[in-house]
Write a structure and sequence with these properties.
By secondary structure, this protein is α/β, with parallel strands linked by helices. It is built from four helices and five strands. It is 29% helix and 28% strand. It has a five-stranded mixed beta sheet, sandwiched between helices. InterPro entries: DUF3052.
Length: 138
């Protein structure tokens, strides 16, 4: 697959980083997963990973729960992050089953003490919103 490494690097992940994945299901974009693994040179770790990681990838759909539950998940993801770690929330694009409004993701991030910084078209059926976490040193 050409361009995979570039796509993974587009998320801001780099070689050697450990990325924790939340909300994996059969509908996720395998291309996005592969691109991140190529960019980092490591396999994604799952929700049960018990060590500090460098970033998080959250797949979030309307049927997964209410905004408050996304807030809790963001807090959990942040608790495992090393300083400066990136969190990406991927949601189905408008018109797709499970679509989540970007404002709902932004509200959940704000409630968790974080903020949305940018958005990308992550795959043909998925959009991504980058969430900036607070630094542990502040």
């Amino acid at each position: 697959m050409s361009g995979s490494a570039g796509a993974g690097a587009g998320f801001g992940f780099t070689t050697g980083q450990v990325i924790q994945e939340w909300g994996y299901d059969e509908d996720v974009s395998l291309e996005v997963r592969e691109a991140i693994e190529v960019a980092t040179g490591t396999e994604l770790v799952d929700e049960d990973y018990g060590d500090v990681c460098d970033g998080s990838l959250i797949w979030w759909r309307e049927e997964d729960a209410e905004v408050e539950d996304l807030t809790d998940l963001l807090v959990d993801a942040q608790a495992n992050l090393d300083d400066g770690g990136l969190i990406w929330v991927l949601t189905p694009k408008p018109g797709r089953p499970g679509h989540v409004r970007p404002a709902d993701v932004e509200d959940a991030a704000r409630t968790a003490g974080m903020h949305a910084t940018s958005a990308v078209s992550a795959a043909p059926t998925w959009s991504g919103i980058r969430i900036a976490a607070r630094s542990r040193g502040r």
